[in-house]
Give the backbone structure.
Amino acid sequence: MKIEILFPEVANLYGDIFNMKYLQQCVPEAEFVEASLESEPTFSIEQVEMLYMGPMTERSQELVIAKLVPYKEKLIEMIESNVIFLITGNAIEIFGQFIEKEDGSKIEALGIIDTYAKRDMFHRYNSLILGKMLDMKIVGFKNQFSHSFGDHGTNYLFEVLRGDGLNPQSKYEGFRKNNFMATYTLGPILIMNPDFARYVMNLLGVQKRELAFEEQARKAYKIRLVEFENKRVDLS
């Protein structure tokens, strides 16, 4: 099993690279490889079971788009073939149609998913988020200068119960197609959500195994879920 981390030298804001450090502890037999902006991505020359990319600066977004444009068709093929993608923070915008800047100019993105982003570098958006995906509740945070728009009413990752979705007018967060999962939600999401971490492990074919630090992760998740639901915290 091979899992590739894309551009960790730039796509590593908010500690989200610990999604993969945690997954390494959960699936120690997997081979984790890294692609830098200066190297050829492993997915372009051999099979990988999962791709991960985390949040980055706005300038780095442009560098990453330029790097991935030659591999657009390969990425589409992988999505159609049910390769697992976990894309967090503003990395979701890399896969959209374009990113609109404050002056109205547009940065063309990969055009793989049916969303587009609008930036507002004068207003940072921060919030907690509570959502529902299948039978799981997802907790996390947002910290961003942009929002995404488009027709995502059927291809969302999860429904928002508290906070905003892809934009303040939406109650749907993220984008999902097959095993491509992208969300603005930070956390790191795998550490904060043990059920979602288990879900990803199941997609990888790793079943009937405890998560790394599962007891502690579930206790922290339970406390945080109560807090996010605005209920009184019971530490017993």
In short: DSSP finds six helices and 14 strands in the chain. The CA atoms of residues 150 and 209 lie 38 Å apart. The first helix runs from residue 18 to 26. The mean pLDDT is 94.
